[in-house]
Amino acid sequence: MSRFLSVVSVQNARDTLTFLARKTADKSVLLGDSLGLILRKDILSDCDIPGFNRSSVDGYAVCASDTVGAGESIPIMLTLIGRVGMGEEPSDPITPGTCMYIPTGGFLPPGADAVAMIEYCEEIGEEVLISKPMAVGENIVFKGEDFSTTNPALKAGTKISSRDMGVLAACGAQEVIVASPPRVAIISTGNEIIAVHETPKAGQIRDVNTYLCTGFIAECGGTPIVIGTIPDEREALETAIHDAVQKADIVLISGGSSKGERDMCADIIAARGEVLIHGIALSPGKPTIIGKIDGKPIIGLPGHPASAYIVLIALVRDLLYAMTGQIRSPVKLSGTLSSSVPSAKGREDYIRIIHDGDIITPVFGKSGLTNTLVMSDGFLCIPADIEGYEKNTRIFAEPWSSE
């Protein structure tokens, strides 16, 4: 067992998990059921949108060259030859010296290459005075400019939002191919762990990590499967891990990852599969275990909730994205540090922070204190090759959630 707690880099741990990641199956869902799921294929519109050149304002369809030199003091005068009705395709063309009234969304008449906004026009009988010069293409949405049949409207890997659902509807996508959500089994271990509804006695703590992990997995688009709270008994833990491997694509085991006589997780994983990593240059989260059973990733999280959450953020999230193909575009918080932040070179430090305007304030707290998660807005990752940051250094941090 000497290989246990042989510390590897965070990047090594990420690479190991990415290697273990198995893409989940494709599935077809109705558009109305697609919210929050991950697209597996690019989406192209079934037709050009819009299907015709149309006006983006109420005004008058014109030849832009007719409006050169127009101004409030010297407007140009054009002959009004008709009006475009909504949903109607005009048959008469615009010729030099003429114009036609057109509503927002109206079909642009042949010959017109600009639309003068009604605010700059005055209709007098069969003549229209225009007091502003128009550029070619001004106030026009061209055919296929919104979505086309050749360029993807949405890329594979997109997590479908309410906005994306609108795009899918516009493209005629009644059904979409998405990634099946990864199933993640959650096991909480420890004789000291009690149910949430119970009052802790001396030496007891409520089961925080089951709910912390359940919520995190759901936020990341996975399907949490709660196996339960397991005492520090080898047979019970072996049974729970076996059950979890049968039911899920990933297994998270909270607790039992420190180097101690009662910690059996690594031993059980090694007996049933393989321990790949036991110890990561990550603070908090150093005693994390990464293994596999039947080719499935088994991750032993630290027991302290704040430490466990950092491991979820630093490693488990990327594993879920690798399994679904989700494209991640991290949101960054920018600001200057209100105080210096020390860090030991050789490990990746995750410091909780408060972001207020242009100021980023570190939140220092012991790993066992859950309150630092709700007191903070996000985290600052200090790379392993940097010995911290000085006060007033401009840095980039990341919010807890970038949704």
From TrEMBL:
Family matches, as InterPro entries: MoaB/Mog_dom, MoeA-like, MoeA_C_domain_IV, MoeA_linker/N
**Recorded GO MF terms:** molybdopterin molybdotransferase activity
Domain of life of the organism in this record? Archaea
Cellular component annotations (GO), alphabetically ordered: cytosol
Locate the MoaB/Mog domain: which residues?
185-322
* Pathway(s) where this gene product acts: Cofactor biosynthesis; molybdopterin biosynthesis
GO-annotated biological processes:
Mo-molybdopterin cofactor biosynthetic process
Annotated Pfam families: MoCF_biosynth, MoeA_C, MoeA_N
Its name, as the record gives it, is: Molybdopterin molybdotransferase MoeA
Q: Which organism is it from?
A: Methanospirillum hungatei
